[in-house]
Structure formats: structure tokens, C-alpha cells
Design a protein that fits this description.
two-stranded antiparallel sheet; three-stranded mixed beta sheet; 5 strands; globular; 202 residues; 9 helices; mainly alpha; single chain; disordered N terminus
């Protein structure tokens, strides 16, 4: 899909936001999907999700307020933490090298390409959270104010994220799609979708 086509697709997918509501207030929160599937997803990476009491400060939160926090192999979230925020911080822990992870407290560090890979992986993992999914994830990223040069998270993912995908493949966090069990490569001879590899970057 070209960049122009991706932008049209994004515009067709998202309905106009109510004029009297801050779009950031409309994002899906952890209590709306439940903590159990989020905990199960993090456990596949050997990570722990720690629930924080309503109104209490979130340890390791870079942006404070309701945003998720990270310290070592632990992710912290409240019921009002946005799902996209928890996935984003989780993917930071996944994508950083072991040396930084060993001393991680709040600040992820890393280069721009790693940040792009974090955004890419969080969109892939969105489909692993029942009640969230890719479509809601790109919408919530736009509502929250993630900035992409093509104008939307969906357009970026579909037409401008080659470096992010390459980073994930290079570090073994993603495997290229392969033909199905019958050897059918899929429509137009294309391989199947990429496969998420549940491991931390070394």
C-alpha cells in the first residue's frame, strides 16, 4: 500500500471525534479490558504486571499521571492506565538491550529506530489483547497524540515502518511470515503475516 492509500484508509476508518470531548479521554483503559489478559501477555515475555491502587503514583512512569511505568522486568499500571501506554512501555522493555534492562528505572533510552520498533511491536501485540486489537490501538495512538510524518499511526505502520520491522527481525523479536502447512504462500504468492517471537532482546 502506498503512503497516499494508507492515509485514505486511515481517514475512512476513523469517525470524527465529538467536538466537546478531549480525544485523549476516549482511549481504552486497563480496567475496560481487564488485567488478566494483560498479565498473561506480559508473562509470555517473562515480565510482571504490578497493579497500582487508584490515585496512587505509578512507579517508573516517565509521563506521570495515569501512564504506565517500568522498572526492570516489572510494568506498573492503574485501572485508569491507557492500554496503549502499558503496551508501549512493555515493548520498550522488550526492545531494549539486556544491559539497559538490568538498570531500567523510568527512562528507556535507545535510538530513534528502537522507538519506532516499540511502536510497531505494540501494534502487533494489540491483537493479543481481547477487546483492544489493532484498529483500536491505532485510533488510540492518534487520540493520545503520537506523532507520525504520514499523519496517523495506521498510515505509518502500513507505509513507512520498514526500519521498525527490520529492527524487530534483526533482533529476533519478529519472524518473517512463511507459507502455510500445505505450502500455500497465500494470495498473490505473498507470505503469511509476520510472527511475533515471545522473547526479550538480548
Amino acid at each position: 500500500m502506498s503512503a497516499a492509500e494508507a492515509q485514505v484508509a486511515a481517514q475512512a476508518t476513523f469517525a470524527p471525534e465529538p467536538s466537546n470531548v478531549d480525544p485523549a479521554d476516549l482511549v481504552l483503559r486497563c480496567d475496560e479490558v481487564g488485567f488478566a489478559p494483560l498479565e498473561a501477555l506480559l508473562e509470555r515475555y517473562g515480565l510482571e504486571l504490578v497493579r497500582i491502587e487508584d490515585g496512587s503514583p505509578i512507579p517508573g512512569s516517565y509521563w506521570k499521571e495515569s501512564e504506565a511505568g517500568m522498572v526492570g522486568h516489572r510494568l506498573y499500571a492503574r485501572r485508569d492506565t491507557p492500554v496503549h501506554s502499558l503496551l508501549h512501555e512493555t515493548c520498550h522493555v522488550i526492545c531494549m538491550d539486556a544491559e539497559r534492562r538490568a538498570v531500567l528505572d523510568t527512562e528507556a533510552g535507545g535510538e530513534d529506530v528502537e522507538e519506532n520498533a516499540v511502536c510497531y511491536l505494540q501494534l502487533l501485540l494489540a491483537d493479543r489483547v481481547p477487546g483492544f486489537g489493532f484498529d483500536r490501538a491505532v485510533l488510540d495512538m492518534d487520540r493520545w497524540g503520537y506523532s507520525f510524518r504520514l499523519g496517523s499511526a495506521r498510515a505509518w505502520f502500513e507505509a513507512d515502518a520498514e526500519d521498525a520491522r527490520a529492527f524487530l527481525l534483526r533482533h529476533g523479536l519478529l519472524a518473517p511470515g512463511t507459507p502455510g502447512p500445505d505450502g500455500d504462500p497465500g494470495p498473490d504468492g505473498a507470505p503469511g503475516p509476520d510472527i511475533v517471537v515471545f522473547r526479550l532482546r538480548r
